[in-house]
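Anyone up for a design puzzle?
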């Protein structure tokens, strides 16, 4: 599992670097084609750095907000919360924030940059449709 985590971190770093290189290449192209000067490269670099930092530090919140996920506590939905809590205890990782999405679709996703900033979201459809062991 730890080798997969390391591989995912490497792939994320490579993806961020490629995005930044692509943005700078667009700035260079604008400089070359339109003659804007090197400020287009600097602006492209600044935009790519800002976008990378926002996506790294706020990407989980953006995904949860876009899906309409609502944060739940143990008191709101003890069944789902305890299920996630038991799984994380078994795995030896911190319990993530648990979210529910009001949707009949069978779907779930996990997001976050590390275990301390992790969140899991489940639809109400998947909670109702699956048995305890399946969920």
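Challenge accepted. My sequence:
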């Amino acid at each position: 599992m730890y080798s997969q985590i390391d591989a995912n971190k490497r792939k994320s770093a490579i993806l961020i670097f490629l995005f930044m290189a692509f943005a700078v290449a667009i700035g260079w192209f604008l400089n070359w084609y339109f003659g804007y000067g090197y400020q287009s490269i600097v602006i492209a670099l600044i935009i790519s750095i800002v976008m990378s930092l926002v996506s790294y530090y706020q990407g989980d919140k953006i995904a949860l907000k876009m899906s309409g996920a609502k944060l739940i506590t143990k008191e709101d939905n003890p069944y789902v919360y305890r299920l996630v809590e038991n799984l994380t205890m078994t795995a030896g990782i911190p319990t993530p924030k648990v979210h529910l999405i009001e949707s009949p679709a069978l779907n779930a996703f996990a997001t976050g940059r590390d275990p301390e900033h992790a969140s899991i979201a489940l639809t109400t459809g998947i909670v109702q449709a699956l048995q305890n062991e399946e969920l």
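A detail worth pointing out: The mean pLDDT is 92.
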